[in-house]
Amino acid sequence: MRFFPVPVYDVPMGRIKSALEIAMEKTEGVKGDKTSIGLFEAKQRGKLLANQYLAGKGDTELSISGELKKAAGEEQAALKQGCFDVFVSQITLPGIPEDLKRLETAGKGLAEVIGGKRFPPLYQQFLAAVSQYLNEAAQYEEAIKRQYAPKLRQKEEEFARRFGRQVKIDPFQDPEFVAFYNQNINALKANYEALIGEVQEQARAMFNGEV
Questions:
Q1: Do 115 and 131 meet the contact criterion of CB atoms below 8 Å apart?
Q2: Which pLDDT does position 28 carry in this prediction?
Q3: What pTM was estimated for this model as a whole?
Q4: How far apart are CA 138 and CA 149, in angstroms?
Q5: What number of CA atoms fall less than 13 Å from residue 80's CA on the CB side?
Q6: How many of the other CB atoms lie within 10 Å of CB of 4?
Q7: Contact predicate 127/100, CB 8 Å
Q8: Of 7, 148, 199, 208, which one has the fewest beta carbons inside 10 Å?
Q9: Contact (Cβ atoms closer than 8 angstroms) between residue 48 and residue 87
Q10: Rounded CA gap, 162 and 81, in Å?
């Protein structure tokens, strides 16, 4: 029986990783994944907490600050970020007076996660401005209806002649009126939308410690 020599390759030792090194690298990857997952879950908990707070399911501001105190380090930061993202998204122009309560609650939540004394006065000015916007929007609506009233009456008279009975048209069911209304009300909104962006940016800067 003949024996053939097994070839020996000259491989630099520096390129060979031991089983222990490979296992340690995998362990580090798992630790990194667990950390990322933990922070993601903390952020999601923050979002849930903020939404519950907005819905009135929390125990006033203590439900925010109390939960934040239970966490520390990166977990607390992620929890705060989740709360902040939800609260800051609520800074919008109100459509009806009842929206002011939602905006007020969001402001209280933001004050909790931002901390300090600078944000509340800024937000109070914002609430006063959007309250004024609602008043102006109501006045605009009445003025627009008065301006469009003659054309609306003409349409009602035309329908009355066509169908042989009196017809009352809801202006917001009339496409021409809706287009006329949106054109005018959007001009008013444009004056306040810049304020929305400014308050959101100020809130972000304070939250991130940039100002």
A1: no
A2: 57
A3: 0.74
A4: 16
A5: 21
A6: 5
A7: yes
A8: 7
A9: no
A10: 61
Angle between helices 99-114 and 119-163 (to 10 degrees): 160
Query: Is-contact 196 93, C-beta < 8 A?
Result: yes
| Sites in the chain below the pLDDT cut of 50 | 3-4, 6, 8-9, 11, 13, 30
Computed on alpha carbons and rounded to an integer, the radius of gyration of the chain in Å comes to 31
Task: Output the six-digit token pair for 172.
Answer: 């917001």
Q: Which residues contact 176 (CB under 8 A, 6 or more apart)?
A: 151
103 contacts 134 by C-beta, under 8 angstroms: no
pLDDT for position 210: 85
